[in-house]
Sequence to fold (222 residues):
Amino acid sequence: EDQVTQSPEALRLQEGESSSLNCSYTVSGLRGLFWYRQDPGKGPEFLFTLYSAGEEKEKERLKATLTKKESFLHITAPKPEDSATYLCAVQASHDYKLSFGAGTTVTVRA
Amino acid sequence: EADIYQTPRYLVIGTGKKITLECSQTMGHDKMYWYQQDPGMELHLIHYSYGVNSTEKGDLSSESTVSRIRTEHFPLTLESARPSHTSQYLCASSDLGVYGYTFGSGTRLTVV
Fold:
């Protein structure tokens, strides 16, 4: 069974204080690893898709990386508007369903 | 702008009532999903469909049912709501593209 574990559960940062979120996964053949952002009371919003170890994607202050066992979401010089829950999900090569982790809730203080 | 719509956004209903949560998408995606999410918890797949007239139960057991008569429409029905059904219900759709799923804004259901 596919498993996704995210750490830490919560992260409180000062504005400008860079940090990283971890997503460890086990899957029987990886089709893709996805990062989403979820604001309170809303549905998840797509950020990145990573397909193979060594791949990196960037968007504004966010950078996602992938190894064979885990993915990191690096937040560089965060701003208060980066406060959200960040979800990681994996999709196995034999299926289309996504398995999600519980997320990391990031709070950035001004 | 998201092209998947869920209604209602919020619903408070009494125990024993029958409810239908609506989900529609305009992207022509053949795959659609329903997830249940409690506060601070991960999303759990309760139903999915890979095409018209095809539905399957997900990993989390649910007393709800779904139908897929049209590609764009994937409603979820609870025949008799109970307080244990209180949760947020998220609908999503996908194709084989790079974006994984596109999610709706969710329906927050409270059964009293």
About this structure: Residues 15 and 82 of chain B are 5 Å apart (CA to CA). Chain B touches chain A through 27 residues (CB under 8 Å). The longest strand of chain B covers residues 44-51.
